[in-house]
Specification:
The complex is a heterodimer. Chain A is α/β, with parallel strands linked by helices. Chain A contains 13 helices and 14 strands. Chain A folds into 2 domains: 166 residues, Thiamin diphosphate (ThDP)-binding fold, Pyr/PP domains (Rossmann fold); 127 residues, Rossmann fold (3-Layer(aba) Sandwich). In chain A, helix 4 runs parallel beside helix 6. The chains are: A alpha/beta, B alpha/beta. At the A-B interface, helix 4 and helix 6 of A face helix 5 and helix 6 of B.
Chain lengths: 317, 280
Amino acid sequence: MIDAAITDKKRNLRDAYSSALIALGRRNPDVVVLDADLALSTKTKRFGTVFPDRFFDMGIAEANMMGVAAGLAACGKIVFASTFAVFATGRSYDAIRQSIAYPELNVKIVATHAGISVGGDGASHQMLEDIALMRALPNMVVIAPADATEMEDVVPAIAEHNGPCYVRIGRADAPILFETHGMFEIGKGYVLREGSDITVIATGTMTAEALKAHDLLKKEKIDARIIHMPTIKPLDEKLVKKSAKETGRIITCEEHTVIGGLGDAVAMAIAEKPVPMIRIGVNDVFGESGEAWQLMEKYGLTAENIVKRAKELIKKS
Amino acid sequence: MHDEKLIKEIKRKALEIRKWVIESIYRAGSGHPGGSLSVADILACLYFHEMRHNPKDPKWPDRDRLVLSKGHAAPALYAALALAGYFPVEELKNLRKIGHFLQGHPCMKKVPGVDMSTGSLGHGLSVAVGMALAGKLDKKDYRVFAILGDGEVQEGQIWEAANAASHYKLDNLIAILDRNKLQIDGPTEEIMHLEPLAWRWQAFGWDVIEIDGHDIEEILDTFHEIKLNEKPTVIIANTIKGKGVSFMEGTLSFHGKPPSEEQYIRAMSELEQAERELND
């Protein structure tokens, strides 16, 4: 079991991204960073300030940025390309497919402002299908870290992995869940709380909610196993299957549409030996403007909703 | 000015490329002869004179790169690579066949000498920009060539890349635009106009050179004219779709269609006749 707890301390994953990127840049001269006119928001600008020769702003032309990233990678660079998730995946899908995923080039797409918690910008900017898009691509690794500590471990880990990776993080500050570094490994899921009545598998921002749900469920005498699944592809199928067998019920939680994301990946993993399952996510609708917490609440992306759905599932099965 | 021996040798290579284009597409039963034949002379000039490359070391870091952005001309690229020695020419007979490595469109993971996987139009120039940027970053003197189709530049991403290339002063980047004036649905100017094409590239900050894309001497001379002046260069190569096979020249019907058996025999005999004339 991994040591994790909800604390009062919060840190933005974008800050963690930029500090990890700078540390990586110091160690490895092959690291090159691209952005598409959002370098202040994604915080890659900080890398650009420290390493001006290895930072290129490609302007508001995301598809081109992905192609340029591919060309740099084909010449031996480890390329980090960042922008908001909606542009990084939606706008650039074919460039990623043709020039990065198919030739399996060493490009790390690190997208910020993923999910509905983008808030006020509304549906146009709330990317809820990026995991589905990236997961469908062969050769692509898909990661949604839960906190800043983990994000700092994700950056060197993906640099070490020779091939395309997609990392999605949110806009808002997030509670620190992990006090210590060194946990993250591509393709591994982590049991944060043991339990035998039900397994809650969460990724990204929803892991904090799942941890809160654990304590709320405990008060109702429900013993929930909480799994943090930072890598959605390749999925830790072994852990999923083991937990399905041991707890007999699964709930998945993601700040993403229920189509094609973590829930689908887990459902696929247990399709041959299914157990009753509920997928929590945005239910095939676009978002809207509002405060991040209001939207998370309205669309059911909260600990309270996890508790409610867990009780329903236990009642039914 | 180049000596006659060299020009004759490249003409011979271009004819060999054309023969293999016909042969490989005929055997495959599908493919794009028109746009493969129109770039044969350009590819011959690049691989048999202009480019710095080593077929024994396809990943040589200091090599010049070539991105065939109009990936459907793969049969011509494969022929040039095989004739240059990247892989046995016999492999050209297995184009598009399951279990063999010559994919319908270029795949860098499978084919030695292919510097970038392409096929979906509009992507290659962006990749070439990245390669040229890497060259500048590493202070290497290699050049990056990108071959674009004319219909292809209707894709918006081409212009994003064109803008980035001049912004980052990539004078090590040379785009060659195969101006054969036809795309699948018809003449480019009827389907979606490109003219004034030279002016458009100039407006994006490029040096523009317009040439006859079938005149070997002019192609070779043009490469020598390119200056390191902090501007990328585009060569608008006026070509004829299907060049070299009389009944394919300037026609739409051989954009993406293989020759029939009778057409294959005719095409090969025309190209062999041209070889004999060249050798006389």
